[in-house]
Design brief:
Layout (H helix, E strand, L loop, with lengths): L1 E6 L2 H11 L6 E6 L9 E2 L7 H11 L3 E4 L2 H5 L2 H7 L4 E2 L3 H8 L1 H11 L6 E4 L2 H11 L3 E5 L8 E4 L2 H12 L11 E4 L6 E8 L4 E3 L4 E2 L2 E3 L3 E4 L4 E4 L6 H21 L6 E10 L2 E8 L6 H5 L7 H9 L14 E8 L16 H5 L4 E5 L2 E4 L2 E4 L3 E9 L2 H13 L14 H12 L1
Parallel strand pairs: 1-2, 1-4, 2-3, 4-5
Antiparallel strand pairs: 6-9, 7-8, 7-9, 10-11, 10-16, 12-15, 13-14, 15-18, 16-17, 18-22, 19-22, 20-21
Helix pairs in contact: 2-4, 5-6, 6-9, 7-8
């Protein structure tokens, strides 16, 4: 079949690698794609957030399946437009995608579905938001209600910093309409966990768990980013716990959205905290996580195209996913200064050398080609993912390959999956 993949980031690079390897895919198109995707798919120019433009392109190439990677096209209604034109789509409708497009809406859905989550209230003015923030106490959690590219969340012990975050969003308009309302939320203790599942609106088939790193610097320091790395599986999440999360969190949400007349089709993502009182949801996303996908896809042995097609056609029932026994560690190479101001257009060296490391994939995120040279074009530039028998092996491979790649200002965290490696060593000692 012909598959059209929408998006241009690291997540789409990982998805594209699996789609291109599928025996059922004859032609793969990436719109707008990136230099990494261009090696495995035909790149096509496109504004992926323009429903009419996407429909026209899908018709031009006569796509059998459209896989929507990022959240913005979903929230813009691209899935609805494609379905209206008779295309098979992996990705939820605009109504279903509001689970990510509005954090306040997601909270209402969780309350209605009986899903455990952090206490929160929504505000459009600083003073009442501050009063509720003081009622909850530190650490303070401030979230822009809408899409803010992973940068609309502030978690801090500093009350003045929290108030500044409220003012940046509500008064200064840092995030535009997305920040015209904010959630002030209870802080959830415990390690975080990501669980992503495939669904056709009825059946839910969960992936193995993954762990991502949102802070910019080692030791969970610095500002929140779109994600600085990830790993899978997660030693802290047993098979029984993953099943419980799927049963008590994802399945109820899929059932509830269907009952509302908004069936969710695609990848549904639950970000959770494993608190002392059990798993609680931090957020839902309407698509694969980034950078979690870069740690999951190298481990997925099932045919991704066939699973996505089953979701799009309502035929997911009976599907079982097969996973490699190896672990995967994915390290993000970011531009200096990210998530704040950073330079672009900087030449990248060592890509081919890095890709030659055994068990390593180099996924492009923020890159482009200028005069035949691959250069930086975003905050998160690349994700280097490595498989290994143990987390120690996978970390060593990932960081060795990342060390072969050079561009001015390159920034990486050095502690991705370090706690998983230490947990592994402790288990071996026991």
């Amino acid at each position: 079949m012909k598959v059209l993949l929408l998006g241009s980031g690291g997540r789409e690079s990982a998805l594209g690698s699996a789609l291109s390897a599928s025996e059922s895919v004859d032609e793969l198109f990436a719109a707008p794609g990136n230099p990494g995707l261009a090696q495995i798919a035909e790149p096509l120019e496109l504004d992926a957030e323009d429903p009419d433009a996407v429909v026209n392109l899908a018709g031009k190439i006569d796509a059998d399946l459209v896989v929507i990677g990022p959240e913005a096209p979903l929230v813009a209604g691209v899935g609805d437009a494609l379905r209206g034109a008779g295309r098979r789509v992996f990705g939820p409708s605009k109504a279903a995608a509001r689970i990510e497009g509005s954090k306040a809406h997601a909270k209402r859905l969780m309350e209605e579905a009986g899903i455990h989550t952090a206490a929160a209230r929504t505000f459009d003015a600083v003073e009442p938001a501050t009063a509720y923030m003081d009622e909850l106490g530190p650490p303070y959690v401030i979230k822009a209600d809408g899409l803010a590219a992973g940068k609309g969340v502030v978690v801090t012990e500093d009350r003045d910093r929290a108030i500044r975050a409220l003012k940046e969003s509500l008064v200064e308009g840092r995030f535009g309409q997305a920040g015209s309302r904010v959630l002030v939320e209870e802080f959830l203790d415990g390690p975080e966990l990501s669980l992503i599942a495939f669904t056709d609106g009825v059946t839910v088939v969960p992936c193995e768990p993954a762990q991502d790193y949102k802070r910019a610097y080692d030791g969970e320091a610095g500002p929140n980013t779109g994600g600085m790395g990830s790993y899978s599986p997660v030693p802290a999440c047993s098979e029984d716990l993953a099943h419980e999360i799927s049963h008590r969190v994802i399945e109820p949400m899929v059932k509830h959205t269907a009952a509302r007349g908004e069936p969710f089709v695609g990848a549904i993502y639950a970000g959770l905290a494993l608190t002392s009182k059990g798993p609680k949801v931090i957020e839902f996303n309407a698509r694969f996580g980034d950078p979690e996908t870069q740690a999951l896809i190298p481990r997925l042995e099932s045919d991704l195209a066939e699973v996505c097609f089953a979701c799009a056609t309502g035929e997911l029932s009976g599907t079982r996913l097969s996973w490699s026994d190896e672990v995967c560690v994915s390290v993000v190479l970011a531009s200096g200064g990210y998530p704040g101001h950073y330079r672009t257009g900087l030449p990248i060296e060592g890509l081919e050398r890095a890709a030659k490391h055994p068990g390593v994939d180099v996924f492009h995120a923020g890159t482009e080609v200028q005069n035949g040279v691959t250069v930086t074009a975003g905050g998160r530039v690349l994700a280097v993912s490595a498989l290994g028998r143990t987390f120690k092996d996978a970390r060593a491979r990932a960081y060795a390959a990342a060390g072969d790649i050079h561009f001015d200002g390159k920034h990486i965290r050095s502690d991705i999956a370090l706690r998983a490696e230490r947990a592994e060593e402790t288990k071996e000692e026991a």
